[in-house]
From TrEMBL, chain A:
Coiled coil, from the record: none
PROSITE patterns: SDH_CYT_2 (PS01001)
Species this chain originates from: Moschus moschiferus
Protein name as it appears in the record: Succinate dehydrogenase cytochrome b560 subunit, mitochondrial
Cofactor entry: heme
Assembly description: Component of complex II composed of four subunits: the flavoprotein (FP) SDHA, iron-sulfur protein (IP) SDHB, and a cytochrome b560 composed of SDHC and SDHD.
Automatic annotation (TrEMBL), chain B:
Function text: Membrane-anchoring subunit of succinate dehydrogenase (SDH) that is involved in complex II of the mitochondrial electron transport chain and is responsible for transferring electrons from succinate to ubiquinone (coenzyme Q). SDH also oxidizes malate to the non-canonical enol form of oxaloacetate, enol-oxaloacetate. Enol-oxaloacetate, which is a potent inhibitor of the succinate dehydrogenase activity, is further isomerized into keto-oxaloacetate.
Bilayer topology: Multi-pass membrane protein
Coiled coil feature spans: none
Species this protein is from: Moschus moschiferus (Siberian musk deer)
Gene3D superfamilies: Fumarate reductase/succinate dehydrogenase, transmembrane subunit (1.20.1300.10)
Lineage: Eukaryota, Metazoa, Chordata, Craniata, Vertebrata
Origin superkingdom: Eukaryota
Sorted UniProt keywords: Electron transport, Heme, Iron, Membrane, Metal-binding, Mitochondrion, Mitochondrion inner membrane, Transit peptide, Transmembrane, Transmembrane helix, Transport, Tricarboxylic acid cycle
Name of this chain's protein: Succinate dehydrogenase [ubiquinone] cytochrome b small subunit
GO biological process: mitochondrial electron transport, succinate to ubiquinone; tricarboxylic acid cycle
């Protein structure tokens, strides 16, 4: 299944004449985490911009919008899931951002340290997201 | 700034190559490898990313920008727990300013990496500036006329 997916991606790469990063068989954890750092960054920026622009353009105060959401009487599971979905990219970007700043200081650049810090970031992300969503 | 990069790269000048020194440290691994695999684009500087700093004068502006990015990142990291512990109006505005600057510079890096061509990149950077300006204005408006960022996040814990 994964091989079929890779073959499809590979064909797209060759057709678009992209460099073969997406076509190589073995993705690495640092590579995937790096792309996710960028992806979460872009998503978070889009969210912040959306929030800022809607403050200017959409009528109604923040409280009125919050009251509207509360009036929908959504189940606690759904609310918890929504909060988790909001806070997960923020936590991932924050923890991985700290990892990036460590690299900028010249620390933790060996391959084994890369993998260890990567796993640590993923664990911290899940734990902090669950914790914050529960608040 | 992007034009300066291209000009230097095409001329094969040392100053141009020095700008790429920050590529291994700043860019994600994916993009660094991406740049290395595209030699036939007139970017004669991209292959040589391991020059020693002592041989090149480098661009002060690029170096300062890099440092500025790290400073703002650390500032933002510090502001988040500070805002939790001491929510106030000053904290709201500091958070908004730092957040929009960090976001602006971050997306700026994405544009530099993926948007090629002088005119297109300039247009994209201008569009980004407009978006960041409106975001900043909107968030300041929110702080002034509405509850403010700190109170808003607090209200979300329902």
């Amino acid at each position: 299944m994964a091989a079929l997916l890779l073959r499809h991606v590979g064909r797209h790469c060759l057709r678009a004449r992209l460099s073969p990063q997406l076509c190589i068989r073995n993705w690495s954890l640092p590579m995937a985490m790096s792309i996710c750092h960028r992806g979460t960054g872009i998503a978070l920026s889009a969210g912040v911009s959306l929030f800022g622009l809607s403050a200017l353009l959409v009528p109604g105060s923040f409280e009125s919008h919050l009251e509207f959401v509360k009036s929908l009487c959504l189940g606690p599971a759904l609310i918890h899931t929504a909060k988790f979905a909001l806070v997960f990219p923020l936590m991932y970007h924050t923890w991985n951002g700290i990892r990036h700043l460590m690299w900028d200081l010249g620390k933790g650049l060996t391959i084994s340290q890369l993998h260890q810090s990567g796993v640590a970031v993923l664990v911290l992300t899940v734990l902090s997201s669950v914790g914050l969503a529960a608040m | 700034m992007a034009t300066l990069w291209r000009l230097s790269a095409l001329c094969g000048s040392r100053e141009g190559r020095a700008l790429f020194l920050r590529t291994p440290v700043v860019r994600p691994a994916l993009v660094s490898a991406f740049l290395q695999d595209r030699p036939a684009q007139g970017w004669c500087g991209t292959q040589h990313i391991h020059l020693s700093p002592s041989h090149c004068s480098g661009s002060k502006a690029a170096s300062l920008h890099w440092t500025g990015e790290r400073v703002v990142s650390v500032l933002l990291l510090g502001l988040i727990p500070a805002a939790y512990l001491n929510p106030c109006s000053a904290m709201d505005y500091s958070l908004v300013a730092t957040l929009t600057l960090h976001s602006h510079w971050g997306i700026g890096q994405v544009v530099t990496d993926y948007v090629h061509g002088d005119a297109v990149q300039k247009a994209a950077k201008t569009g980004l500036l407009v978006l960041s300006a409106f975001t900043f204005a909107g968030l300041c408006y929110f702080n002034y006329h509405d509850v403010g960022i700190c109170k808003a996040v607090e209200a979300l814990t329902f």
